[in-house]
Amino acid sequence: MWSPRRDWTRPATPCAPFLPAQVLGQLNRALIAQKIGQQFLTAVCAIFRDRTDGEGSGITGVLTTAGHLSALLRHADGEVQEARSRGAVLGGFPDADLASARFTLHPGGA
């Protein structure tokens, strides 16, 4: 029996050169290749970078969702912003049509 814990929960490896859509696309291709039947996977993948390098303070990020609603970001002033990303569930379609959203959070944001 296929187990996500056994097959996919491995120590994280640096993936900074890759975009989240590429990471989830590769995972989707692996799931399709395994032909595990009617099992699907939802996921969120994000990469964060520290902005204390002269651009200001806070973090920048890129995220992609697969089978989830877009993430919501709360800024320090209380404003809530939708990080519009999209993608189909993984393992269901050869082309999951994944799109990324870029965002910036300043101190006090979440």
Automatic annotation (TrEMBL):
InterPro entries: PPM-type-like_dom_sf, PPM-type_phosphatase-like_dom. Gene3D superfamilies: PPM-type phosphatase domain. It comes from the Bacteria. It comes from Sphaerisporangium aureirubrum. This is SpoIIE family protein phosphatase. Residues 20-108 form the PPM-type phosphatase domain. Pfam families: SpoIIE (PF07228).
